[in-house]
Amino acid sequence: MSQYYSELSNTVTRVLVAEGLVEAEIKALVALGELTIEVKKENLLQVCQILRDDQDLAFDTIIDVCGVDYSHYEGAKKYASRYASVYHLLSVKNNHRIRVRTWLDDDFPMVDSVVPIWSGANWFEREAFDLFGILYSGHPDLRRILTDYGFIGHPLRKDFPLVGQVEMRYDANKQRVIYEPVTIEERINIPRIIRDDNRYAERLSNNGQRDDQGESV
What we know:
alpha/beta, Beta Polymerase, domain 2, 5-stranded mixed sheet, two-stranded parallel ribbon
């Protein structure tokens, strides 16, 4: 872990411990050029409130909320559960970014909504609900946002068929749009040519270090 990430991680851990969260409940790691902290879903709201309000952190802006289905990931067994809800935060004041991840139950993925803390999470949580079926308790208007009202299932779950489950067409006799079981044969496309991409080799060889200007290299 570079000095930048180490200092940010220490600051986050120090503040959270001072607020009564034991250090063992917070796991910090660097992934994809960004600091990630993992928290229990029961502590999510408390942690997020601290991340926003503490002046040493001041993560006042939520950039994104997304769901993840780890069921078909390479090495999926190493993950705590199938589903996770991930929050990307920005501190405009301190020019810091952080990723917060919390693990959810496989059978009934549900976690508290962070809309009371960051109102900008409203549509993000609706999207994660629509596409992954993650329920956000306390959300003011949790309904589908991208798919149709009568859509069945959650299309970004790994077990959702690529061709969908139903198809729609206009029936001239009934003079309305009707839904029918899908008739398209499902196919799995396998890439024929796999080329190595060397554009990021130098960055990866530097192990995520930051240059003197604070940019990731």
